[in-house]
Amino acid sequence: MMAIRELKVCLLGDTGVGKSSIVCRFVQDHFDHNISPTIGASFMTKTVPCGNELHKFLIWDTAGQERFHSLAPMYYRGSAAAVIVYDITKQDSFHTLKKWVKELKEHGPENIVMAIAGNKCDLSDIREVPMKDAKEYAESIGAIVVETSAKNAVNIEELFQGIMIRTVCSSSLASWCWLCRRLLVSSELAAGLGHAAVPAVLGGVCLHRDSRL
Known about the structure:
Elements: E1 3-13, H1 19-28, E2 41-50, E3 53-62, H2 72-76, E4 81-87, H3 91-107, E5 113-119, H4 131-141, E6 144-147, H5 156-169, H6 178-185, H7 187-192
Parallel strand pairs: 1-3, 1-4, 4-5, 5-6
Antiparallel strand pairs: 2-3
Family: Belongs to the small GTPase superfamily. Rab family.
Membrane topology: Lipid-anchor
GO molecular function, one term: GDP binding
């Protein structure tokens, strides 16, 4: 019987940026044009294979309305990762994202993995947030970054695969040299590797120290 590793993940961000749609696309492979705003929080799970384990995502999708902000700590407390979502067509949502990052750094779990998702990339013709800005900010805080479209199923799987890789591997990175660490946690690699790559990232070793995961 395969071992099951549970990964608690919370989604944070402004109302209307597509948090619920991202979760629904990931868990149910479904997109609802008329999805209702989340009240408080909603909970969904998805189990995916990863090497010799099963990884069960415990996903808390939090409401973006300001009146529910005070409830957020209940959901990000104890989380392995947080996905902070912004809408690439709304600059204000990117400013809100930075406020969430500040709160997580001050009050969230010490080693929480942060992933930045620029949703609605299918609307790039009315973009307000350049991808360059998001990448530079993500690099400055050590976060995964990817642009997604819940509507068109773009980079949704990759987002959660990147989270899975980072959470599984982060405890072993201390024994890796700085170059291999940088290769592993770079946003492009973290967002692009498939789930089967977890035990095989760079062969599962630091290329320069032969320190196995």
